[in-house]
Structures are given as structure tokens and as C-alpha cells.
Write a structure and sequence with these properties.
Layout: E1 2-6, H1 18-31, E2 35-44, H2 46-57, E3 65-69, E4 75-83, H3 84-94, H4 98-114, H5 121-141
Parallel strand pairs: 1-2, 2-4
Antiparallel strand pairs: 3-4
Amino acid sequence: MIQFFAELPIKPPFKKDEHIIRSWLQSIAAQENKKISELTYVFCNDSYLLELNRNYLNHDTYTDIITFPYQEGDNIESDIFISVDRVTENAANFQVTFRHELCRVIVHGLLHLIGYNDTTAEESQLIREKENFYLDYLGSTSDFLK
């Protein structure tokens, strides 16, 4: 089960297209030999995510995503919080659409749950390659990124 929620004042970013993202994420998990048992994405603003970062991770910085995995192994169960403010700013900085950057962050969280990291330069390069691969896949199967 994959769910999408938004913390006020944020509105769900793609309410009518959730089925496209669900299918895409299920496909990614299957290609990586994983199964999504329960995955919840919560879209929020910077201040909401900053509080989570401070309270649960002892980090006093803004971030675009925080992932809370509830189990390890082949079954994915997690809550993922995404700052729409950070996504908006990053989309402008990277000169891509909001949807493109949002999907990059969405898949980034899933890739962490699958087992990819970005601690070292080599790990960062691999996770970026995986992000790009799956974004290209989404772009080739739908008009969602436009």
C-alpha cells in the first residue's frame, strides 16, 4: 500500500495522478527485488520538516526529505516526509519542473529504503544514476514529468 498525505498548509501535489506514482514506485521496487508493504509519503513545508529533523535526528538544518524506515529486508515499510518548499527551490536551482524534482526526491527516498546510500562519492554517484534511470523510465511511460 502506498499513500500520500499533506500537512497543512501544503496541498497534495498530484492528487489526480497518484495512481501513476504508485505504479511507478511498485515497478521500481519489483525491479530492485523488493516489495512495498506500506509506504506513506507526507508532503509538508520547511518548518514542519525542520522540526522533525531537530526532534528525531538532532539535526538543525533544512532538508528536502527524511525517511523513517520501520523494518529492514525485502519488504519496505516506511514514512517519508518531503518538504515542498525545498523541492520548489531545488527545481528552480536545477532548472527542472517542480514535478521532475518532486519525483527525483520521491524515488531518492525509496532508493534509500531499498539499500542505496549517498554517504561516499561513489555511493552518491550510484544513487544519482539510479534516480536518473527511474526518472527516465517514468518519463518514457507517461507525460507526468512535463
